[in-house]
Design goal:
heterotrimer, A mainly alpha (128), B alpha/beta (353), C mainly alpha (148), B: 353 residues, alpha/beta, 13-stranded mixed beta sheet, two-stranded parallel ribbon, 36% helix, C: mainly alpha
Amino acid sequence: MLAEEMLAILFMYLKAFAVGGAICATAQIIINVTSLTSGKILVFFMLGGVVLTALGLYQPLVDFAGAGATVPISGFGYLLANGAIKGAEKGFYYAVTGSLSAASAGVTAAVVFSLIMSLLFRSKTKRS
Amino acid sequence: MSCAFECRMARFAYITMKKGNTLFFKTRPRVRSYAAVCGSKEKEGVIGGYADVTLSDDMYGESTYEKAECKMLSAAVSLAVEKSGLTDGDIDVLFSGDLLNQIISASFAARDFQFPFLGLYSACSTMSEGMLLSAVLVDGGFAVNCVAATGSHFASAERQYRYPLELGCTRPPQSQWTVTGAGACVVSRGAGNIAINSATLGRVRDWGVTDVNNMGAAMAPAAADTILRHFEDTGRGPEDYDMIITGDLGALGSRILKDLMWEKGCDVSDNHVDCGEIVYNVIEDEFQGGSGAGCSAVVMNSYIFTKMDAGLYKRVLFAATGALLSTVSSGQGESIPGISHAVEFERLPPAKE
Amino acid sequence: MTDSARRGNINYLEYVRSLEPSTKHFKNCLSAFGVGGLICVIGQFFRYMLGFAGLSGDELAGAVSVVLIFLGCFLTGLGVYDRIGRHAGAGSIVPITGFANSVTSPAIEFRTEGYIFGTAAKMFTVAGAIIVYGVFSGVMVGIIYYFL
């Protein structure tokens, strides 16, 4: 029983690695071919996550790969779209506000930690 | 004297001083002294042993990179003046510029000095433009001692032209590295071993390169244009020079330059050297070399002039290259115009004293 | 510009392109795959750990992203993340830690211009686009689902 559970966990890690890695490798191919900057890649992948979630295609991937699908920025899009879809069931107000509410943890964390880091650290010049 | 005679004389003088876009300096202004300050990464390269000051900390004890750049420039200028044996009062004008918006490093560095300041912007070709204008002023008798100086800093250039330093993004293989350093030289009437014989003014050339990571390709046509016109105007060829030095074309840009020159029937492959290519150890498919205004300024004012002083090179053509772009122009999809000004240096035989 | 000059330019641009060092597709993709996958595995690890701690559902997903964002911000502050990014490319850009990096790096970088117009205003130079289009597309999805 325990061994089986361990195996399931290990398998889940493997799936997360494969799916997350595949999403990143896809982005790398796009960067190589089109030489898009990192900001644009982030926006396009986030939008991709939103669209796929709205079409109902991203949820199965999340169920399958767990963090492999939620950790890439497309997972952020998934979070936004998912919040909006869930909100839409409750009413128009929640349909509009649902997406940002769902993403609030991420945005809040990014803002707060960035501000703290900017107090703690200074930019360092690079040599390579 | 009749007016007609005067006019004829004036035209005669004009013809002898200038052919095409090349100016010939009759009094042959001298490079009286030179000084260079370079950063810690540059110290490990070829110029490490020749620069006057090498930084161990690229902040140079300042709180921001912009202040560090300004301090480097200021240090280079005061060192050059000190080495020339002159005092602040003997200097007639300082020509200086840098890469930052509104050339703040140059103008802020000029606060430290008592002599007048003329600000230049010619991107990475500021060094040769400064030398050229100094020579013009000295040759024309409007000045006795001029200082030409410029510099750049990797971190300040990076944050202005590209991304924040800590942003995790890959550098494309054709990209270059902005040199941290500053160089200055004093151009004077009379004293010094290195003479400025002539200078060719650059034309802005734009062959439609839009890739901001590939400055070498954007600037190579301008460099080729200037060097070819220099040869045409002076009636010389590449074999008459010990060295033809370009500013910061990098490994890729140098290859393009050689090809462009070769197409015009001019083979420079033997004596062409690019400051950007020699300032670091270049691995061509990963990294093209140094760039920035400081690149040619540091290499010229340390390595090249020292070697010329020692008599290793007799005649050198220095064509610094500049990419005249801004973040606004590249954001709006404009292509990158390039410019290159060439200055010819000659090592004079030691004066009999 | 004359037509011949334009043609010359096109020839030149093609020639330049032929000289450019080719990107190492396979090597780049492999390192992106490896690093990106590894960050996801770390995320999965925190999913399990925080799950054991009693979190579940949206709370768990939120907590995992907060932890990863913290790591991204912290490594950016230490000056480590850009080094990872130099080799990993998309592998460190696309995960949520890359989003954190894009917020923290300008925040640190522009501190010299003050805390209000430096750090705070420049914080969203890259991330602003993600939030703007994310919120907009999220609202669109919400409205469409509401009326469906």
